[in-house]
Every structure is written in C-alpha cells, then in structure tokens.
C-alpha cells in the first residue's frame, strides 16, 4: 500500500496544502520556510496509527503552539490531516483490475476542548476520523468517528458501532486497527506503522549509533539508529552481500572500508582508513560526519527496507564531498521502497534528481504560509 497524497490544514505554517506523492518525494528550501512542518505532518499520521497523536501534539507545545497562527475563517478551530493511498495488491485479490485499484483515504481532525467540556484546556482532542475506500465505483466509508462514537464495517461489510466509547485523546485508527475485528482498518494501520522517520542521528559520545548492539538479526535500522552495528552484521554475515555498502562508504569516506567482526554477545564495527590500514577506528573515535553517513547507510541499504523512509535534512554534518555517495544510496533505496526527503541543500537535490529523474519541489513561505512553488492548493501544478 503506497502513499499517494498528503494534505494538511491549520497546522503550524501549513495553512492549507496538498501534495501528490510518487515513488520519491523530494523537497528543497531555505531554512524557516516550513519544510520540517511537512515532515512533521507525516509523522503525525503515523502517531495517529500508534495512538499517540494527542501526546505528540502536546509534546511540541500543545494546541496553542501547533495551530495555524494566521487569520482564520469563522467556525471551529481545527487541524486536519489527510493521507491517501493506492492498494493494487488488495485490489487484485478482490477482483478489481490494476488500473482501477483501491484508494484508501484516512482523515483526522484535531481540535481544542469546548469551554464547558471535560478535559484539559490546551489538550489536543480528536474530533473526527474517517477511513474511506474508493474502488472507482463509489467511495465506501469503512470507519467514521465523531466525538467518542465510532462506526465501522466488520469483515462481512456490516456497519456496526464499536462497543467502546473512545476518549478524546484516543484515535480510532489505533484502537480499531489493533482490535483484529476490522481488516481494512488493520491493514492501513499496519502500513503506516511500517514507516520510518530518520530526523538526523545523535553523534555525541553517548549516542546510540556509537554503541555496540545486541547480536540479533536486524533487517532494518531503528529510528534512533541504536541497532546500527547489528544492521551491518546482518548484511555482512547473513546476507553476505555488501557490494553497494562498501562502494558508498569508500566513495564518501576517502576509500575507507567497513570492518564488522562476527558477533559474540554483541555486534560491533569499525573503519579502516587507507592511510592507516593496520589500525581499526572504532565508532567512539570517528567524526560526527563519518558516523552520520554510516547511520544513513544503515537506513538506506539495510537487508530489508521499511514501507516508507522519510529523511529530514540528511546532509546535516556531512562534508559536501559526501553528497554524491549519499545521492547514490538514496537512488538505490528508491528502487526498493518509497522515500520522502526534505533538504535545504540544492546540491543534494540536484544529485538525487540526476540519478532518479525525480522532480525537486521548492518549498517557499508567503504571508506566513508554507507553499510549494508552482503547485496549487489542490496539489496540481500550474500550467507554467
């Protein structure tokens, strides 16, 4: 199930924006234009699937911080997030053609507590949620929620009321999707939970990427990079194919080679540099840029890739000479999964575009609102 569009309204600098998303979504812009808010909107869709949407908004300052601060229309104050998908595999199983497909769409509205209602003053409250599936004939609502009441279709297609009233901080996508009673909701939730967000990596002395990992087969990198050594050990000793990894590390790090011993109780790794071939440089000795590149290599070239990888300013702390190798890794990953990349480096964006043919979308800010240059509010491009 592939993400095909994302829309957000009323969130921080995202007054109203909709984006059509292909295999590789590439966004470039200056600091302060709201690129990270686009990335964060994606994260909040995943938080809804996890059941932590209210918590995540509260953690970033609550509704008074997260709401669009510009001029608003009259009516309820809401943040709205909408994600649309394409599910060709399920469509084929259900007897639809590949051209018709199935198009699930998830929408969630978040608001504030009315003056006379129970709850904390600035607590984010889930007001409405819907999950519809469009097969090309007519949209069918698989889940609908207003306030605490939720209706959904069971595995026989009957529309029933979920027996438990939800709290204002709970999402129906998480509660119903994890119940096992509603297959379509569960499938969509599983898809979104499979996304991975890599918002930089800590590279201080005690950072997770510099530590040994438990010796457990690791098909993909954790979001904080704590299993990086296990990811490398899985590639070296289980997959036994590190040609792409070795080439990218050598290109980015001046001919360095990755050394990964057979794990004992823990997995470890180090680098051997051409000027000191007999000396193994362990993670605690490597520079921030070297460690960040190695973590990105673990994220993009792991044994198995997530359903979607989102990178926020992956060029941070990297020397400009490393950017072609980073673009190579991104291009290789794009052949295996969907990618969402936000960067302020035009050089990196051009390197990625040259390898993948992806169009780099320029993020700008006008009248306080984040926009995509040349893209209308409905997500379509201007004719020019």
From TrEMBL:
Annotated ATPase AAA-type core domain residues: 280-349
BP GO annotations: DNA synthesis involved in DNA repair; double-strand break repair
GO molecular function: ATP binding; ATP hydrolysis activity
InterPro entries: ATPase_AAA_core, P-loop_NTPase, RecF-like
Record Pfam families: AAA_21
Protein name: ATPase
Organism: Phyllobacterium sophorae
Phylogenetic classification of the source organism: Bacteria, Pseudomonadati, Pseudomonadota, Alphaproteobacteria, Hyphomicrobiales
